[in-house]
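Suppose you are handed only these lines of text.
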Amino acid sequence: MNERLVRIRESERKSHTEIYTSQKLYHTDSWLKRPIKTVREIASHFDGYDALRVLDLGCGVGRNSIYIAERFQKIPCMIDCVDLLAIAIEKLLDNAQAHNVTSSINGITKSIEEYEIQSNSYDFIMAVSALEHMDSQESFLSKLFEIKEGLRKNGIVCLVINSSVEETNTQTQEAMEAQFEINLPTDKLQSILSNVFCDCEILKTTVAEQEYDIPRESCISRLRTNVVTYAARKTD
Ligand SMILES: C[S@@+](CC[C@H](N)C(=O)[O-])C[C@H]1O[C@@H](n2cnc3c(N)ncnc32)[C@H](O)[C@@H]1O
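From them, the structure of the protein bound to S-adenosylmethionine can be written out as follows.
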C-alpha cells in the first residue's frame, strides 16, 4: 500500500470507529439513522421470493443489511456482509442479535478487494459509500465486473459512490486533497457504470450534490461531492 492509501485508511479507521462505537443503529441523527431510500425501494422487488441471497460490500454496522434481514425474516435469507474493519463486523453482529436476525447475517472481516464474489450467486448486491474506498481504479473496475457476474438472473445491483469530491480547509479556505482513495469525475464514473452494466436494465441513476463539514486530521474540512446512485437488474 502506498503512503497516501495508508494515511487515508488510518483516518477512515478512526472516524468510522468513533461513529460505530458512539452511535446506536437507527437511534441517532447521524447517517446510521435509517437504511438508504434506494435499498428500501429495491427491497419491494423481492416480495414474493421464497429465498434470498444478498451481498453487502463495505457493510459497516448493517444499516442496510439489518433492514433487509428483518424485512425478509419469514423466508430463508442469507446476507454476506463484508467490511475491512473488525469493529464494524463486531457491531454488525451485535445489531443482528438485537434485531433477532443472527441467522441471516454472515459477518466477514475482509477488504472488498480480497473478497471473491462467486459467479451467479446473489439476488441483490449493494455497496453503499464503499467502492470509492478501494485501493485502485483497476481493482474498482474489475470488482464492478465481478459484481455483475455475481448476480443471478434478475439479480439487482445497488451502488452509491461519491465522485468529483472537493475538500476545503474551513479555517484557511485552502483546497485540500480529497480523502477518498478513488475520486473519479462524475461523468467518468457514470460512463464506467453504463459500460459495465450495458446489458442490464437500469432501475435508477441519479446524481445528488452534497456539501457538509467533516473533521480531518488537522482541521475541519468542507466537503463537496456528487453522490452517484446507480441500480440495475441483470436480465439474462
Ligand atoms: C461510509 S461507511 C458505509 C457503511 C454502510 N455501507 C452503510 O451504508 O451504512 C463505509 C464502510 O466501508 C468500509 N470500507 C472502506 N473501505 C473498504 C474496503 N476496501 N473493503 C471493505 N470495507 C471497506 C468502512 O470500514 C466502512 O465501514
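What can we learn from it? The longest strand covers residues 151-169. The mean pLDDT is 96.
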